[in-house]
Design a protein that fits this description.
This protein has 126 residues and is of the alpha/beta class. Strands 3-2-1-4 form a four-stranded parallel sheet. α5 packs across α6. The chain is built from seven helices and four strands, in the order βααβααβααβα.
């Protein structure tokens, strides 16, 4: 199993340690994405900031959907007007492109779409 960890999960973990996330990291099942790292860099990850961002950057990467692939995905699947932005839909497309991949998010709209496409990290697992 490979689980793309959304920014929302990281932010929650920074506030209250999440043992499921720790298990995914230590078992090399947690994936990251360049957009998640950028979003985390815009916020206030735990000190030492540079070390935290560096360590998350060491995780395996999910497949990276290109902007044109995401645009096609949005149009083909009619994903517009559902309250999810470009980063959300890029992560969803990337999870779909990653063999054996799933997406773990705390964002309800994104999680609903991930369930629709059968890539949501199962709630009973976290």
């Amino acid at each position: 199993m490979s689980v793309l960890i959304d920014t929302s999960v990281w932010v929650g973990h920074f506030r209250w340690r999440n043992e499921t996330l720790v298990r995914l990291i230590t078992s090399d099942q947690a994936l990251t994405h360049s957009l998640v790292l950028l979003e985390l860099a815009c916020g206030t990850p735990p000190a030492p900031r540079s070390r935290t961002l560096h360590d998350i950057g060491l995780l395996r990467r999910a497949q990276q959907a290109t902007p044109s692939e995401v645009m096609q995905f949005i149009e083909t699947e009619q994903l517009y007007g559902r309250g999810c932005g470009s980063v959300d839909l890029t992560l969803l497309a990337s999870a779909l492109m990653t063999p054996g991949g799933s997406l773990w998010t705390l964002d309800h709209r994104l999680e609903k779409l991930a369930r629709r496409f059968n890539v949501a990290f199962p709630k009973e697992m976290h």
